[in-house]
Amino acid sequence: MKLQLGKxxxxxxxxxxxxxxxxxxxxxxxxxxxxxxxxxxxxVNVKLIPGLLELRMCYNTGSAFSFLAGKEWAQTxxxxxxxxxxxxxxxxxxxxxxxxxxxxxAIAFLIxxxxxxxxxxxxxxxxxxxxDFPFFAVCNFADFxxxxxxxxxxxxxxxxxxxALFRSGKEKNE
Length: 174
Prior knowledge:
Elements: H1 2-15, H2 17-41, E1 45-49, E2 53-60, H3 74-95, H4 101-124, E3 127-133, E4 137-139, H5 141-160
Antiparallel strand pairs: 1-2, 2-3, 3-4
């Protein structure tokens, strides 16, 4: 398996696919960190569409919906969890066929989003959130990227994969 993974990595690097996908990851992280820095620097507090969409700076020591916020051990837990998840996704990327572009794109979005929030946790001991949906939650671009990655992965698994539940236009190989 080790030799097989090494060959897959070498093939991806040689073809340039690796640099394209992980260039996207770095671009997503840059967008996330830049938007967080701007919102934080200007202490943003703007009602774009009152009751629907606002920009408001928040500092979250928990995860989604402030889960485990205020727990002393939570930051360490989320940092370790993010490292494990990103490492697994990084390895899975190489086992996903290059023809499965949507699945690989999903992995890039998941890693990019996770890395953006990871950097906040390590550097600041909290995550900067600023996009406020008052009826729902406050989030950031990393959260949007993670959500987009999940949606892309579900689309791939439900419609595009050879074993997809809802394949249209193509016969399943029996």
